Inverse folding.
């Protein structure tokens, strides 16, 4: 008799709005993943555009579950995703952005990683194919390093981690950082988040993102949400204290990068501008001055 295989179910979730072409490419990258017969792949799309032609999308991808979220905002869309997946049977939820392309070995590499490292959440590199500014702002860690938070542009979450109490804050969605807050809360509640350097997704940035102005605004935005994130977790006093520490920390990193730029790689100058603008964003945040990013 053939041995029965207990197949694991992976649900890939994409929240999208006004990016039909990118979304189609993202879905195709999921379908192109190298697979084994030990798991099942399902796809969930959360459409956050009231005027989107869902019938056309469903006709193109009849086997994909597509749900409309009427409230405009990335946090509302992600919360809708959490609500929908709890209705389904699955072992892992995989979040990534609608403008990303999965490396074809993404799933195989993550399954291998999960076998080697018992963990609740796995995240990895988000690499742009055409935007050096994005790559400067993205994080990078040692393989299997334990970290405090992940982003929804490339993350795998075990079923046991998710329950009806989990949600993305709608207070941060205009400024960014709501996914950082979400995973920070999971980390503080005891869930382990590990970095898998072989869990790669690729980004093809739109033209308006491949610019120095976008780069500066993104850096300031990363700093501007610091107070909001830590206020939600620890209260206002700790949030301000942490923000002040971050200002000095980012300024120090920026100066180190500035010195290195004279002797080493030129991209260190971009790193200097990133840390300087992130520190400036933190400073503005102390005075409740925040530029909306979304």
């Amino acid at each position: 008799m053939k041995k029965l295989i207990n197949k694991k179910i992976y649900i890939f979730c994409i929240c999208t709005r006004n990016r039909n072409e990118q979304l189609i490419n993202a879905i195709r990258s999921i379908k192109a993943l190298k697979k084994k017969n030990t798991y099942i792949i399902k796809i969930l799309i959360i459409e956050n555009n009231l005027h989107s032609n869902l019938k056309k999308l469903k006709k193109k991808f009849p086997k994909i579950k597509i749900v409309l979220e009427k409230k405009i905002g990335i946090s509302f869309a992600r919360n809708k995703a959490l609500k929908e997946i709890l209705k389904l049977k699955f072992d892992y939820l995989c979040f990534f952005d609608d403008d990303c392309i999965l490396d074809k070995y993404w799933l195989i590499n993550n399954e291998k990683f999960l076998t080697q490292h018992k963990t609740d959440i796995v995240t990895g590199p988000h690499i742009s194919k055409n935007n050096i500014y994005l790559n400067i702002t993205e994080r990078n860690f040692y393989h299997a390093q334990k970290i405090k938070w992940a982003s929804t542009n490339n993350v795998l979450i075990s079923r046991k981690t998710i329950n009806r109490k989990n949600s993305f804050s709608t207070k941060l969605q205009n400024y960014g950082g709501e996914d950082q807050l979400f995973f920070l809360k999971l980390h503080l509640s005891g869930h382990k988040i590990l970095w898998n350097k072989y869990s790669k997704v690729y980004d093809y940035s739109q033209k308006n993102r491949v610019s120095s102005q976008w780069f500066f605004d993104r850096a300031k935005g990363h700093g501007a949400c610091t107070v909001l994130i830590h206020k939600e977790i620890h209260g206002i006093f700790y949030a301000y204290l942490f923000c002040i520490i971050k200002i000095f920390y980012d300024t120090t990193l920026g100066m180190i990068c500035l010195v290195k730029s004279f002797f080493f790689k030129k991209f260190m100058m971009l790193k200097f501008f990133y840390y300087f603008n992130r520190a400036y964003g933190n400073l503005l945040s102390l005075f409740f001055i925040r530029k909306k990013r979304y």
